[in-house]
Amino acid sequence: MKKIHCTLYILICLFTLFTQKIIAQTLPTHWEELTASDWDKALQASNRTCILPIGILEKHGPHVPIGSDLIRVRAYAELATKKEYAVVFPEYYFGQINEAKHQPGVFALQERVVWDMLEATCNEIARNGFKKIIIINGHGGNPELIRYFIQTRLEQPHDYAVYFFEPHSDSSFLKELKALHQSPINEDMHAGENETSELLYLRPDLVKMDSAKNESGKNLSRWHIPNVYTAIWWYADFPNHYAGEGNKATPALGKLLVQHVVNQLTNAIKDIKADNTTIPLQNEFYNRVRK
Ligand SMILES: [Zn+2]
């Protein structure tokens, strides 16, 4: 009897997975491209999982676009959801970017607006039926905001969980990276060889390689107090919003970097869709908090 139950259970699981795959192949992944009549199908195929790619509008040296971080995270989401279905929220570029306000094209909303936007956006995503929200971030000034926001989901009961995707390097990837990378790796950050390469791979039409040496991406090292953090550190070191040598970028390096992130993201989406632990644990926690 037990064996029959077990076989039946496996068959039901396989059938559910199979139908999810069939539905997912014909459904758009972009929120704005879905029809209202397909909404429930999208909830089912994604297992109520929505990706919120967060970018920023900020100067990226003299040669790559202001929306580079947004372009990159949206591409990661687009490529990963081709392999593992989830719904992707529309363009979102509201984050912490005060340190770039002296540069053209920077969109820096007030702190409370940034916070309220993030909270209201996640609440609205959840109200529409998604219980798992995956944040992918493309901008170096955002992680503190995102982590604090996620931690504050425990302040009041929420019927959804927010997951922060954080890709990591392993030794085989680093070996491949070192084989292609030409400038000093530890000095390669904002609009440098890596980021420029990703843009060259994803949107070569927007990269102006001829201008990459028009400004310096050198660290000016104007501020240093050991073991101390302060807000002006980035401006002190990189007032041009350029850190590294974008002129050394290649599409081949960009392909390696993008594929590395997309592979990890695809696995993270799979794991999060299958996750049956986070939300029950959150609920257990909320119930134990003294009212
Ligand atoms: Zn960037």
Topology:
Layout: H1 2-26, H2 39-45, E1 49-54, H3 68-83, E2 87-88, H4 111-127, E3 132-137, H5 143-151, E4 161-165, H6 171-180, H7 193-202, H8 233-237, H9 251-274, H10 278-288
Parallel strand pairs: 1-2, 1-3, 3-4
Zinc ion is lined by residues 60, 68-69, 190, 195.
Gross morphology is globular
Can you tell me the CATH superfamily?
Creatininase
Distance between the termini: 46 Å
Give the domain tally: 1
Tell me, what is the CATH class? Alpha Beta
Helical percent range? Answer: 40-55%
Q: Biggest sheet: strands, sense, closure? A: 4 strands, parallel
The secondary-structure element order is: HHEHEHEHEHHHHH
> At the third CATH level, what is the topology name?
Rossmann fold
Provide an overview of this structure.
The protein is of the alpha/beta class and 291 residues long. The chain has a single domain (34-274), classed as Creatininase (Rossmann fold), CATH 3.40.50. It has 10 helices and 4 strands, in the order ααβαβαβαβααααα. It has helices spanning 2-26, 39-45, 68-83, 111-127, 143-151, 171-180, 193-202, 233-237, 251-274, 278-288; strands at 49-54, 87-88, 132-137, 161-165. It has a 4-stranded parallel β-sheet, with helices on both faces. Helix 3 crosses helix 7 (193-202) and helix 3 (68-83) packs across helix 9 (251-274). Bound molecules: zinc ion (ZN). The site of zinc ion has 5 residues, from helix 3.
